[in-house]
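Before drawing any conclusions, I looked closely at one protein's amino acid sequence and its backbone structure tokens, quoted below without any editing.
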Amino acid sequence: GRKIKIMKKVLYTNGDSYTFGDELSNPRKSAWPYKLGSKLNCNKVINHGASGGSNQRIFRTTVEWILKYIDEGGVTENLIVVIGWTNPDRMEFRGDAKFKKTLNNASDKYDDENLKFTPDTHKIYTSIIPSLSKNRFSEIHEFYMRYLYDREYCLDTTASYMYHIQKFLKSHNIKHLFFMSFNDFTYEMNNYNISLWNFIDKKQFIGEYTMDKYVIDNNIKLGTKYHPLEDGHIKWTKILLEKLDGI
């Protein structure tokens, strides 16, 4: 008889340390992407969250992964995308290992199985703001903050990433949901009158609270570096399920 093609349900997630699962004893099991994937009965979960990651990195890696997924015959109707946007101040910087060490010797954490950095190994993608923040009295940090940093520009670019990813997802009929990890930028988007913000579909965006505000408001314990622990990820998974159900 004729073979029936089995459609695999895939959950793709991206974000910062709140998505990666910082401070969890087993991020690949306890972080919300895996808990959500299990609740949605997904055959595969991709977690592209990276500690200290920027919205620029989220935009780049999300589009790259989805285009590859489509190119390899992935069915977009079976794909669900959830993105936890981070602090708009963060920027992605591609420099050599020596410069990264000058900024911050700590390694960026990410899921080795799912996220590969550039094969051009003498160049490394790193997020410049968290790196500089750990060395905030350095000459580089002072120069950046004095001459290059601009909050309105950071908000403008974040709105652009969100708008274009949403348009891209809708054009491929991909079910999706956005939220903010820890920096509530909705008020500032309106206050600065960021034009593209007005064109983002808010029905697919949790704008009432950030992940960390929800956790704190519900008296859920945070880790020593202020990341939600397992109970926080369990509770947040319930919120995401409810919101996805309404889309």
User: Anything to note?
Assistant: The chain is about 45% helix and 15% strand. Residues 1-5, 111-121 have pLDDT under 50 and may be disordered.
